[in-house]
Amino acid sequence: MENEVTIRIGGESGEGTISGGDILALASARWGYHVYTFRTFPAEILGGPCMFQVRISDHPVKSMGDYADVLICLNKEAYDRNIGELRHGGVLIYDPSDFTPDQSDCITYAVPFNEIARKEVQLFQTKNMVMLGAICGLFGPPLEAIIQVVQSKLSRSRKANATLMEKNLLALDVAKKYVTEKITKSDPYLLGPVEKADRVVLNGNQAIVAGALAAQCRYFSGYPITPASDIMEGMAKELPQVGGTFLQAEDEIAALASVLGASYGGMRAMTATSGPGFSLMTELIGLSSMAELPVVIVDAQRAGPSTGMPTKMEQSDLSFALYAGHGDTPRIVIAPSSVANCYDLIIQAFEMAERYQMPVLFLTDQSLTARVESVDRHIFKTPELHERLQYNTNGSSSNGHHGSYAHEQMLVGAGTGAHDYARYANTTTGISPMSTPGTGSPAYVATGLEHDEAGHPDYEPEDHIAMMEKRFRKLATAAEEMPQPERYGDADATIGVIGWGSTEGTIQEAVDRARAQGYKVAALHPKVLSPLPDKAIQEFINSVDKVIVPENNYSGQLANLLGAKYGLKAIRVNKFGGIPFTASEILRAIEEVR
Amino acid sequence: MTQTIINPTPKDYKSEVKPTWCPGCGDFGVLNATFRGLAELKLPTDQTVVVSGIGCSSRFPHFMKTFGFHSVHGRALPVAQGLKMARPDLNVITVGGDGDFFSIGAGHLVHAALRNIDITVVVMDNEIYGLTKGQTSPTSPQGHVTKSTPYGLLASQFNPIATALSLNVSFVARGYSAKPKELAALIQQGVQHKGFSFIHALSPCPTFYHTFDAWDAAVTPIEAEHDTHDKAKAIALALETERQYTGIFFKEERTTMDQAAHQQVQQSRPFDIEQYMKRYA
Ligand SMILES: Cc1ncc(C[n+]2csc(CCOP(=O)(O)OP(=O)(O)O)c2C)c(N)n1
Ligand code: SF4
Ligand SMILES: [Mg+2]
């Protein structure tokens, strides 16, 4: 395709493979291209094989690309590991001093990366710049785009000095000259000039931090865990600057407990973790639901079970997120699908937590945490926020911005006055006005024990029934008030695809390609998985003959849910090796439907 | 409506909820001491939060007219710390049992001590698990026979005061529920103390482990001359386990984490997403 190329770089962690890739992605995006990255991390702290892939295109990119068009191997191991991912007729770039490729159905360009870095630049560390220079010379973007990024990165680095900058520029330049003079280009990949666009370039975790800050989250507590740590580190850095507080907890139990304490104090509060930490939090998820305290919990899913594969993606915490905890525990579960979505849905997560006074579990995954996308800047705007329903001393309730909710009528004898303030007033929506300490509103006890409307412990059968129904009524209210997912593709589709989480773009690309081949296909991608948008899903299922449910897990957790709820017999497509789907894998599933 | 009471009496801290404790339970004494201590300090009920875990003792917040957070077993400390970090303007008091703070939640004690967040902890120690009907706890004496240790407890006994001192807790005291006046004074000073204050309250469980007589005999007030900045002496007193010294063992003023964090906050600016996103342009 014109003005589109997918470049994969394979190398050893620590030799600049990833940072070189990041520079390439950023430079291409600043130059006006859309980018979408995928990377793997080694298990080792230092060293170990890693790879970086970036798809660069002049039109919006929805997936990481089926295959690499260009593969750059910085050593023999990188070649062995990645050559299978190079498209037939693609370009292999290597250094003949490292190895001699045995592959014959690709175009090969030999570039002496090592020698250029060592002899001509006389600084071996510049090998990744040599690689970038070669990429510029062969495919684009122009060298100036790269230089700008390198300059701004170096100016912020502690290692910065004039010599290093000079050597980097020299490496870029020499390599570009080398390929222009010595290599006869016989491939079709070329990134021509495009119009500049107002985009930002960031990954999923960075978008979550931005969204949480925009949503006025002002307390964060967490415990380090891959791949959620950079959310914690981002909040640690930013919160004090915007009037919030941060606490690195001693474990995930303490993290969520302290977040509940902050929320009780009236603060929008959040924690972020991955599977092992999420497991530890379950008892407190129940407390949040029972005591009706708003809280947002990000679970950056990684391959499990147990410690599993910390640096690999999987969508295998859905069942756990839906049911984690003992007893019947209402909660909201949200899964973002893209970097832009990480931003706007985390804001929605806070809004829903505050509105429905319950835990909101936010399921991203390792691939999305690290996925860098170029995103239109205009989606990052100040959101309209609503405060939680406050109990006012005159006995009325309000939610700040919207005034009072007229339909929050007291159902049964909600009291008046200080001593019998009905914190858990049984209302028609299930939502009860909340009092916050130190604001002049009446005191109450938040408790995990079953309680009456005033929050006093109460084990009477009829009261447990009433309170259970009240708590679950909030989910029904949420289901009514939340936006419905929109169908993507043909209105008269015979084949449907239902997915969740980070696979949306990939599914949409597969749908586009299938439709171009004449298939009648549509996709539905609910972002809120509890409460499920029953009507939209039911209608979608009824409107097609067959439904494919692609998931990056072994057991088909969404398919199981749709089967249990709607009797759907889905065509399950499960990939669970730790790597996301490619669009062609989903396309194949569509083609195989009979 | 909350009205501020100008000169509160202990009664003004008492809620209308009737305590569920057994008659004669030591926790009544601690509750009354708390009413008294808070009345002395004139703490406004609507600016005070009592946080607890689970256990007989952890029912405490329900019996108070202040705000309360009755959380889950062992987690009162992290809840209280999150609350205080987010809302340093509130008075935060954490209460519960020996099981809560020294067994299931023991890990949290270490970190609360290191952070020195300005909260007060009152541990009602009855040397057993009351709510689950009498099993051994970390503070049970070696050899203690209960339903869970029918042949006698094999583990050695946890020393709360010595542990708190070794953790560098900035206010360490012990009181006795049968001496509510003295205990009230300790709670008062603990709440006044800027930093993490730890009050070990001996609080017998007459139903499962009657220790009133033993503690009546063992409890000895720390002599008035004791220098509360002398940690070595404090540790020596704590290790003298035949006696149960009461009073303040140790105290020192250090920076509290909530203060330090909020100093940073004072220089903060409102968040502006458009400005913020420039870093990704
Ligand atoms: C996670 C968990 N495990 C076990 C229990 C059962 N349980 C409730 S209270 C308690 C021990 C209470 O002992 P302590 O903290 O000393 O309080 P006391 O009742 O003696 O005042 C236990 C084990 C629980 N509620 N939660
Ligand atoms: S069982 Fe013991 S600790 Fe619990 S209320 Fe009764 S006397 Fe108090
Ligand atoms: Mg006990």
TrEMBL record, chain A:
Keywords: Oxidoreductase, Pyruvate. InterPro entries: 2-oxoacid/accept_OxRdtase_asu, PFOR_II, Pyruvate:ferred/Flavod_OxRd, Pyrv/ketoisovalerate_OxRed_cat, Pyrv_Fd/Flavodoxin_OxRdtase_N, Pyrv_flavodox_OxRed_cen, THDP-binding, Transketo_C/PFOR_II. GO terms for biological process: response to oxidative stress. GO terms for molecular function: oxidoreductase activity, acting on the aldehyde or oxo group of donors. Residues 493-560 form the Pyruvate:ferredoxin oxidoreductase core domain. Residues 14-175 form the Pyruvate/ketoisovalerate oxidoreductase catalytic domain. CDD domains: TPP_PYR_PFOR_IOR-alpha_like (cd07034). It holds the Pfam family POR_N. The keyword Ribosomal protein does not apply. Residues 211-470 form the Pyruvate flavodoxin/ferredoxin oxidoreductase pyrimidine binding domain. Coiled coil: none annotated. PANTHER family: 2-OXOGLUTARATE OXIDOREDUCTASE SUBUNIT KORA (PTHR32154:SF20), PYRUVATE-FLAVODOXIN OXIDOREDUCTASE-RELATED (PTHR32154). This is Pyruvate ferredoxin oxidoreductase. It comes from Dictyobacter vulcani.
UniProtKB/TrEMBL annotation, chain B:
GO terms for biological process: cellular respiration. This is 2-oxoglutarate synthase. It comes from the Bacteria. Pfam families: PFO_beta_C, TPP_enzyme_C. Residues 205-260 form the Pyruvate ferredoxin oxidoreductase beta subunit C-terminal domain. Signal peptide: none annotated. Gene3D superfamilies: 3.40.50.970. It comes from Dictyobacter vulcani. GO terms for molecular function: iron-sulfur cluster binding; metal ion binding; oxidoreductase activity, acting on the aldehyde or oxo group of donors, iron-sulfur protein as acceptor; thiamine pyrophosphate binding. Its cofactor is thiamine diphosphate; Mg(2+); [4Fe-4S] cluster. Residues 54-200 form the Thiamine pyrophosphate enzyme TPP-binding domain. Keywords: Iron, Iron-sulfur, Magnesium, Metal-binding, Oxidoreductase, Thiamine pyrophosphate. The keyword Magnesium applies.
